[in-house]
Design brief:
- The protein is an alpha+beta fold.
- It folds into four domains: about 220 residues, CRISPR-Cas system, Cmr2 subunit, D1 domain, cysteine cluster (Alpha-Beta Plaits, 2-Layer Sandwich), CATH 3.30.70.2220; about 80 residues, no CATH class; about 150 residues, Reverse transcriptase/Diguanylate cyclase domain (Alpha-Beta Plaits); about 110 residues.
- About 50% of the residues lie in helices and about 15% in strands.
- It is built from 23 helices and ten strands.
- The strands form two sheets. A six-stranded mixed β-sheet has the order 6-7-5-8-9-10. Strands 2-3-1-4 form a four-stranded antiparallel β-sheet, with helices on both faces.
- Strand 9 and strand 10 form a beta hairpin.
Length: about 600
């Protein structure tokens, strides 16, 4: 029997991750997919296959399972993607190996991931739930495999990849054979029946531990994501959103913050036991208590005793008297490599592909450092060239650029042996939404921003969804230094240009005809005059076009001029969001006002 190339894919991916209301749903769903990929890699190696992607060998510690956030030695586990490629030596039947891998993955999912959750959540489940639980758990994992005799490497890989893509176009729609009847569907996606008892029959300690609201319903898969792992290992998104603000508090109100930490411990506020993460180390509690409008909800959800308003005024208000109010928005970062398939297609051997796989693993490791250690965020997923993370707004732009630079450096090293190869680049989307939005909505914002960045590729796109003000977006090529452009625009808005002037120019654009509807040569001159007039009439004495970062050439024609002004308005509106997010001391505000 000849050697074969075997491709294995696991799913679902996007829908499985997106079905989330809380950080723990999102993080654990992503982590479970990585662990299922690790189980597949482990089974492939145990079957004497040689992994190409991920490039792990028998005996590698990264093949060992890790359902927690950290390994026993407190090291972070490598994220394993849902797509695995391996060489199967001659003498081994690839079909039997694929079936063995499938069984190993399903067994790990049933017995190691799902079964412990069912056992510890018995106080949330009805008595006769076994059949429904088993059916929901057994039907969620998608497994596909394709193999061919290993001839010319690049062509063989393309063929099995095409076969898998074709298989994914088909869907299995088996009927549900076990149901509870007349019960609500899951609140996460409405696809499966709830497996929870009615709210009043749920064990109170479990409800509070796993933050299950009275009106919330979870199917077996949703409960696994909610109750898998220990609650203290998950960092609430509010802690990420306020991370930069908390650092300022730690500098200017250290004593008040220390007293608040003591008060949180005494009151029983939920802890975040992740001292390895800067976003949770300074304030290791649910940061919702730092937001006055959330005091009552925190006490109710966590079953805390006492009057929430009084507690907040005593322990939190002294901090708010020294530091400006926190800005309740967070950035969901979604990044993806450009032209990855074209780069991989040019590898003529498994050895070249392994070098590339090792480079992607290096980038994934560096991405975690960039997001979590350098920019106070949390990394949800970094598998190869895909990154999903949350960042505080003051750090988001720098974090996006850092990721792009790390990716560029890794690709320069991995592709240096192929002179003709166009190196892959990284497109990054930042979706900015209110921290009280659901995880699914925040993730949708990030993915929409990534799609916008992918329109040009090698770009940064920012999509801001304000609770009052609607959506605004802006996109810039990395070659145009978009991060500096946004930082300069934010500084301009803080120092010399009132935001109302930007809205005034936006209103001018709205009143003028669209480029396709305009006739004659006077529109370009009129637009330029109106923009100059708006900028000249400011409290600081007026701005010229150069100072405002806007170059207008009347001779360029109305369509070009209209597009340039529109892009300038979009950039300033996005920059305003980042300018508003910068935390400040109240004393400084008073001095400036005086």
């Amino acid at each position: 029997m000849t050697a074969h190339l075997l491709l294995v894919t696991l799913g679902p991916v996007q829908d499985f991750i997106a079905q989330a209301r809380r950080t723990r749903d999102l993080w654990y769903g992503s982590h479970v997919l990585s662990e299922l990929g690790r189980a597949a890699a482990r089974a492939l190696v145990e079957g004497n296959a040689e992994l190409v992607f991920p490039a792990l060998k028998k005996g590698d510690g990264e093949l060992e399972p890790c359902l927690g956030a950290l390994r026993p030695d407190e090291k972070l586990p490598l994220t394993v993607a849902n797509k695995l490629l391996a060489e199967v030596p001659s003498g081994i039947d690839p079909e039997k190996l694929a079936r063995a891998v499938r069984e190993a993955v399903l067994q790990y999912w049933r017995e190691d991931v799902a079964a412990p959750v069912k056992a510890k959540c018995a106080g949330l489940l009805p008595d006769a739930i076994d059949a429904v639980w088993t059916e929901q758990i057994d039907t969620v994992v998608e497994f596909a495999a394709s193999w061919l005799p290993l001839g010319e490497y690049a062509e063989t890989r393309r063929q099995i990849d095409s076969a898998i893509a074709s298989r994914k176009m088909l869907r299995d729609f088996g009927p549900w054979t076990h149901g509870r009847g007349s019960v609500p569907k899951s609140s996460l996606d409405g696809a499966r029946e709830t497996i929870l008892v009615p709210p009043r029959a749920r064990q109170t300690t479990l409800v509070r531990k796993y933050r299950i609201a009275d009106g919330e319903q979870l199917d077996a898969v949703g409960l696994v994501k909610r109750a898998g792992g220990e609650p203290a290992q998950f960092v609430p998104v509010v802690n990420v959103a306020l991370a930069s603000w908390v650092e300022l508090v730690n500098r200017v109100a250290a004593l008040e913050l220390e007293k608040l930490r003591d008060a949180c411990g005494a009151a029983g506020v939920s802890r975040v036991v992740r001292a390895d993460l800067p976003c949770a180390a300074t304030f290791p509690f649910d940061a919702s208590v730092l937001i006055p409008s959330r005091w009552r909800s925190v006490f109710e959800e966590q079953g805390l005793e006492g009057d929430a308003e009084s507690w907040g005024r005593v322990h939190v208000q002294p901090i708010l008297d020294k530091v400006s109010d926190s800005y309740p928005y967070v950035a969901c970062l979604v990044a993806d490599g450009d032209h990855m398939g074209r780069a991989i297609d040019r590898f003529g051997s498994a050895a070249d592909h392994r070098i590339f796989s090792e480079a992607l693993a290096q980038f994934a490791s560096e991405a975690r450092t960039v997001v979590e250690q350098r920019h106070r965020g949390i990394l949800v997923y970094a598998g190869g060239d895909d990154v999903l993370a949350f960042l505080p707004l003051p750090e988001a732009l720098a974090g996006a650029e850092d990721l792009r630079l790390r990716f560029s450096g890794v690709m320069a090293s991995a592709c240096s042996s192929s002179i003709e190869m166009q190196r892959p680049t990284l497109s990054v989307g930042l979706g900015v939404g209110h921290l009280m939005e659901s995880m699914g909505d925040l993730l949708a914002l990030g993915r929409a921003a990534e799609r916008e960045a992918k329109r040009d590729r090698n770009a940064l796109a920012v999509l801001v969804d304000k609770r009052s003000g609607g959506r605004s977006s802006w996109r810039g090529q990395w070659s145009e230094d978009p991060v500096r452009g946004l930082h300069d625009s934010a500084a301009l808005l803080q120092d010399r240009l009132p935001a109302r002037k930007v809205y005034e120019i936006a209103s001018t654009l709205a009143r003028l005809p669209e480029p396709g509807d305009a006739s004659g040569d006077g529109w370009a001159r009129l637009l330029a005059l109106e923009v100059r007039r708006s900028l000249a009439r400011t409290e600081s004495g007026g701005l010229d076009l150069q100072s405002a970062g806007l170059a207008l050439d009347d001779g360029a024609g109305y369509p070009a001029l209209h597009a340039r002004v529109r892009a300038w308005v979009a950039r300033l509106l996005i920059a305003r969001t980042f300018a508003q997010a910068i935390p400040r001391e109240r004393q400084r505000e008073k001095e400036e006002a005086a």
